[in-house]
Amino acid sequence: MKWSRELRIAARGLRTALRAASAMMAPPTTHGAATQGPGALTMVDNFGANPGGLSMLTYAPRGLRAGAPLVVLLHGCGQEAAPFASASGWMALADRVGLALVLPTQSANNNRQRCFNWFRPDQVARGQGEAQSIRAMVADAVRRFDCDRGAVFVAGLSAGAAMAVSMLAAYPDVFAAGASIAGLPVGAASGVASALSRMAQAGPQDRSAEAWAAQVRQAAPSGYRGPWPRLSIWHGALDSVVDPANAGLLADQWRALHGLEGAPATVTDHGLARQQVWGAGSKPAVERWTVAAMPHGYPVAVGASHASGVVVVAGVSATDLIARFWGLT
After folding, report:
1. Which residue, among 281, 162, 177, has the nearest Cα to 229 in the 3D structure?
2. 46-71 burial by CB neighbour count: b if 16+ within 10 A, else e?
3. Scanning 23, 38, 161, 320, which has the fewest C-beta atoms within 10 Å of its C-beta?
């Protein structure tokens, strides 16, 4: 029966929400949360139009050269931006290769779980809500650090990942590439109920890759025809918070957007992680990493797993490999 199926989906969505709340609302640990170090962490006020009511932090190495890349990093639900940037290795990478970080921070006034509102059309549309706030942060940081406007990137975890791909869709003229870790495709949801449903069960499965790509084109500026940002996709095979099948739909969405066939050009096993690549040459358009035996979280090679699920030691560093995919290392 149709209603029985919908009730089962709703129940799964509720269970997903409870798992997400319990996993992500635990206070962040202090592992690696040293915001002291070679770089400087700064709170920025009055960075520009802020209809989304977000806060802006930046992190940059001392003596950052002009023309350096800029990375926007979006935290997951219940997380703090700076500890996440540190524990995931992005602060260390910034120090090592010389790049600036923008760390948008969500408020409980906007979302009780402090999730970015990726499922609300008014918050992800170009020039509106949280999307406009993040865009204003990028413009401020590019001026502040004299960054390369052609080397601006965005990555996120979970709700931050879904927001990251929404930023790529709304502002393809701003971002060169992005990364989604445990996220969902653009257009997967348009409200709380559908967000919970798609977290529990990816879909709609009968939507074609081209129809998924159309969701991105609709979010882009009117008449925009490219180039489209490149995308690195990561997901744990044992994720019980965001259905891992979302990674497959996201890969379909972005390879179709780039006009690529369904079969990946290469498939490579790297220990416990499998990499699929769409596109040729040194800068393929899309890659998808599936990390075996990993639950919901951000994969790092070494360190300490966080009880809150922020970071999971999985023998592979998403940060290092995303930076390589983007051409930063």
Report:
1. 177
2. ebeebebebbbbbbbbeebeeebbbb
3. 38
Q: Give the residue numbers annotated as catalytic, written as ranges.
A: 158
Task: Tell me if 237 sits within 8 A of 294, measured CB to CB.
Answer: yes
Domain architecture of the chain: domains with CATH:
2-326 (3.40.50.1820)
Tell me the CA end-to-end span of the chain in Å, nearest whole number. Answer: 53
The answer to whether residues 315 and 272 touch, using CB atoms and an 8 Å cutoff, is yes
Q: What tokens were used for 34?
A: 């040293």
Question: What pLDDT sits at residue 302?
Answer: 83
Q: Could you give the strand order of the β-sheet that contains 39-44, starting from the edge strand earlier in sequence?
A: 39-44, 55-61, 100-105, 70-74, 152-157, 177-181, 230-236, 286-291, 273-278, 266-270
d(CA 201, CA 206): 13
The residue among 163, 206, 203 whose CA lies nearest residue 181 is 163
Give the predicted TM-score (pTM) of the model: 0.88
Strands (E), 79-122: 100-105
CA-CA distance, 18 to 13, in Å (whole number)? 9
Alpha-carbon distance values, 58 to 29, 80, 144, 162, 208 (Å): 20, 13, 10, 21, 39
Rounded Cα distance, 7 and 316, in Å = 38
- CA 294, 296, 299, 301: dihedral to nearest 10 degrees? -50
Q: Is 162 helix (H, G, I), strand (E, B) or coil?
A: helix
